[in-house]
Fold GTPase Der.
Amino acid sequence: MTLPTVAIIGRPNVGKSTLFNRLMQRQEAIVNETAGVTRDRHYGEAEWLGQTFRLVDTGGIVAEDMSELMEAVQAQTEYAMAEAQLILFMINAREGATAADHDIAMQLRKIDKPVVFVANKVDAAEVEVDLESLYRLGLGEPNLISAEHGQGVGDLLDVVLEALPDTGQFEEAEASVQVALVGRPNVGKSSLVNRILGEQRHLVDATPGTTRDAIDSRVRVNKRLYTLVDTAGMRKPRRIGETLEKTTVDVSLKRIQRCEVAVLMVDATDGIRDQDVRIASYIERQGKACVVAINKWDAIDKKDGTYEAFVQSVAEATPFLSHVPVISLSALSGQRVVKLFPLIDTVFEASRQRISTGQLNDFLKTVTERRPPPLYRGKVVKLSFMLQTYVQPPTFLCFVNRPTGVAQHYQRYLENQLRQTFGLAGTPLRIQFRKK
C-alpha cells in the first residue's frame, strides 16, 4: 500500500497552498494574492512525530464560476477528495463562514470520510472569530490556525494523526527518479504527463500558462518508479510582466535544479526557438541529464528526411547538447511515448556512472597518444593522471603540468572521447585541470 493521503480543500485564497508549504517545510506550492493560482493537484510528503503522510494541495472550489477551466479545476479537487483518506476543509476565519463554505460543507457531510475543519488566518489576538458561524457548518470543532505564521499548526497535525487510518499499514514511500518536463508554454508538457498516467491528472487548456505550479506525479514503468514534474512554461524574460508569472518561472527553474533528468519539450509545429535554446542552456549549466522530446510530431507534414532535418536544426541551435538523445512523439495520440522512458533510463544511468581510476588512466594514455595536446606558448602540455570526483554530472580531475595551457578544443576532444569510451551520452561532463 501507499502512504495515507490528506487532501486540503476550500475556496480560493483561504491559505491552502500556504498550509501545504508549511507542512512540507519548504516553498513547494506557489502562494500569491491572486485567487485561483493553484489549479492542478499538487502532491508532497509531510511528516509529524515520526509519521509520514501524503499531502495534496488543490485548486479553490468556486461554485458560481462555470468556465471550462474552472470546471476542470473543480474536477481535479473532486479527484483528490476521492483518493484521500482524510480531508482538511479550510476556510478564512476573518471572513467567517460564507455561502460558498456552506455549499462545500454540505458536500462533505455526504461523503463517508473523516473531515478535519480548519479555520485559517487567525494570526493575532485582536482578530475576532465568529465561532457561532463556524459551528453552523456542521463539521464540529474548528481548528484555529495561522498557516502563514505557524500558530496552531502543531495542534492541527496532532488532530490529523488521530483522524488518519492506522499508519502502520502503510509502507514507506519508494525512492524514484526525478524527471522534470520543461519547455515553453503550450508545448504539451501537461498533455504528455496525462498520456503517460492514463488519466486527466493535469489541466490542459489552449491558453498558455494553465500550469502554474511544478506538479509532481508518480508512475511506475517496468520496474522503475519515476516522479514526473510538470513545470510551468517559460517565456522570454522580457515578456514576463507580472509577479505571478515570475514566481512560476522561478519555481520551474528550481525544479530543474532538483531534478535528475530534464526532458526538454520542443513544439514540432514551431521548430526550435531562441527560448528553447535558453532553457537548454540552463539545463546544461545545472549539470542535468537531458532528453529532447519533439512533441506534436503528428501535426506536421512529413517526407523523407524530415526527422533528420529537425534533429539537425536542434543540434545546430544547441551544440552543447549534441550528445543528448532526441525523440519525436505525440502526447495527443501517444505515438512513441513509451520509447521515452528507455532514453530517460539511459541518460540517468550515465549521469550516475562511476569509472575506476585505473580505467581512466588507461583511457588518458590512449587518447593523448592518439592526439597529443597542442603546445602552449611553445611548451609541451602533459596530462599525467585522471580520476573521477563526482557524479550527477560525472566530474573528473585531471593533473597536468600547465593547467591553463589545455586549449578549449582539446577539452572538448577529451569530453567526446569520454562519452564514446564509457557511454556517457545525455549527461553533461565536467573536467577540472589541476597542476601536477
